[in-house]
Write a structure and sequence with these properties.
It is built from three helices and two strands, in the order ααββα. The protein has helices spanning 17-51, 57-82, 103-126, and strands at residues 87-89, 95-97.
Length: 129
């Protein structure tokens, strides 16, 4: 079995110190934000499920599902972010750095949030006051 740089099985990309700082900052900012958001949604779902009566259980479950959705989106964002600083070989044979924006992640998170807010509105209107 052949190993790459520093005995890693995956191909290793040599990044400059500035690029390493940029990668770490992006991970700290984006991945941390998604994980914190999902944890807060799980916590709020737990509060709703523990404190309120059974008629609010569907709302608590909605927050738990939303937290799980954000967590899966963070995994997708991480997979996209890992490709952010890799170089690709152009048609002319020159090596170019490729920067991928997070547009796909924003679209998915927006769709998830709109669906969650619509469901929350429907569940709230169904409650008997």
């Amino acid at each position: 079995m052949a190993f790459g740089h520093k005995l890693h099985r995956r191909p290793t990309v040599d990044l400059s110190p500035a690029e390493l700082v940029e990668v770490r900052a992006a991970q700290r900012t984006f991945e941390g934000a998604y994980v914190r958001t999902s944890l807060s949604q799980f916590s709020f779902a737990l509060v709703v499920l523990k404190i309120f009566t059974s008629e609010f259980y569907s709302i608590g479950a909605l927050f738990a599902l939303y937290g799980a959705g954000v967590l899966f989106i963070s995994l997708f964002r991480r997979q996209q972010g890992n490709k952010q600083f890799f170089a690709e070989l152009g048609d002319d044979g020159l090596c170019r750095k490729k920067f991928r924006t997070s547009g796909n992640v924003v679209i998915i998170l927006t769709a998830l949030s709109v669906a969650a807010y619509a469901s929350l509105l429907a569940l709230t209107l169904r409650l008997s006051i």
